[in-house]
Amino acid sequence: MNLPTFSDIEDAYLRIEAQTHITPVLTSRAIDKITGAEIFFKCENFQKVGAFKFRGACNAVFALNAEELASGVATHSSGNHAAALALAAQLRQTQAHIVMPQNAPEIKKKAVVSYGGLITFCEPTLQAREETLQKILEQTGAQMIHPYDQKEVIAGQGTCALELIQQQDDLDAIVTPVGGGGLLAGTSITAKYINPEMEVIGAEPQGADDAAQSFQKKQRMPSLHPNTIADGLLTALGKLNYELIIKNVDDIITTPDSTTIEAMRLIWERMKIIVEPSSAVSLAVILDNKEAFKGKKVGVVLSGGNVDLQHLPF
User: Fold this and answer.
1) Sheet with 118-122: strands ordered across
2) Residues in domain Tryptophan synthase beta chain-like PALP (predicted)?
3) C-alpha distances in angstroms, 168 versus 3, 165, 220, 299?
4) Where are the alpha helices (DSSP H) in the chain?
5) Going by C-beta distance under 8 Å and a sequence separation of 6 or more, which residues neighbour residue 194?
6) pLDDT at 235
7) Which helix (H) or strand (E) holds 203?
8) Alpha-carbon distances, residue 280 vs 43, 96, 101, 153, 286 (angstroms)
9) Residue 189's closest CA among 4, 1, 2?
């Protein structure tokens, strides 16, 4: 299995540097007081397309040559990766074909269209997404860019932690959300290369806990009927990501949606920034396990800020 390494992440950083934002790291004394930890929030909600996903999509698209790009790029995604790929394709002046489930959030559909992506809707199952994408790949000859389980995508996501550690170099731990696992896997490569002592922790909703189960049982478990408010974390853990997570990650902790809503509200109220539920899962895990994080310097990746403002959970 061709797993990405730290040198792939360094290459990705140089490749996408001109296209991506260096996102800020924010702190909140109020949240530090509540949790008993010193938290450094890496604000990928301020990244282009409003999510870290732009890093991976951008790296994958910019790694392709003109010939490979001629027939466009394609993926399946319910949200942020879809918009990220559409924008990355637009920057390389090629077409993005996006398969989206019909029930994808309206804000995410609008974003894809605004970046020039061509959407094909399908039933909201992984099987329907994969089958529809297969048809489009056959019809168009487009290059497949996987939402999370692809070497270039994982390397791109790993640049987020690289930037965070450059901005705040004395962290004891980094906590990131985990859905498909690209962000957690990429983060784990970076963190363990720079400081093997740094803890890397995945945060996952209890209603979509296939990564936590896979981590505990040491075999990749299927995601069956995931049900969580964190719509960005409904995907099943990828194969490459599973291998990297088993190798590098210290723990995956789950949290109920009720705590995620509390954490999301806390970030909105205390930090005055908009994050989506998937982002808030990381802080939720800290709120649920204060003793484990007490007195530590913790990097928390706020993965995105694309919220359907018509359907807020509070």
Assistant:
1) 118-122, 96-101, 73-76, 143-144
2) 22-304
3) 27, 5, 33, 8
4) 6-16, 29-35, 53-62, 66-69, 80-91, 106-114, 126-140, 151-167, 182-194, 210-217, 239-248, 257-266, 277-288, 290-293
5) 162, 165
6) 87
7) strand 199-205
8) 11, 29, 23, 22, 10
9) 4
10-35 per-position pLDDT tens digit: 999 999 999 999 999 999 999 999 99
Partners of 224 in the β-ladder: none
Q: Which domains does the chain have, with CATH numbers?
A: 6-52+154-302 (3.40.50.1100), 54-144 (3.40.50.1100)
Q: Count of H helices and E strands in the chain?
A: 14, 10
**The residue to which tokens 């992984």 are assigned:** 126
| Long-range contacts at 190-196 (CB < 8 A, ≥ 24 apart) | 190/6, 190/9, 190/158, 190/159, 190/161, 190/162, 190/165, 191/161, 191/165, 191/248, 192/248, 193/6, 194/162, 194/165, 195/165, 195/171
Q: What is the pLDDT of residues 144-180, one digit of tens each?
A: 999 999 999 999 999 999 999 999 999 999 999 999 9
Residues 6+ apart with CB under 8 A from 182: 56, 147, 148, 149, 153, 154, 157, 238, 241
Write down the mean pLDDT value for the chain. Answer: 96
Q: What is the pLDDT of residue 310?
A: 85
Q: Phi and psi (nearest 5°) for 116?
A: 85, 10
Amino acid at the residue 195 = N
Q: How confident is the model at residue 108 (pLDDT cuts 50, 70, 90)?
A: confident
How does pLDDT run across 169-225, given as a tens digit for each residue?
Answer: 999 999 999 999 999 999 999 999 999 999 999 999 999 999 999 999 999 999 888
Nearest to 268 by CA among 256, 277, 255: 277
Q: Would you state the structure tokens that stand for residue 223, as one six-digit string?
A: 């995601």
Name the 3-class secondary structure at 141.
Answer: coil
Q: Give Rg (Cα) of the chain.
A: 18
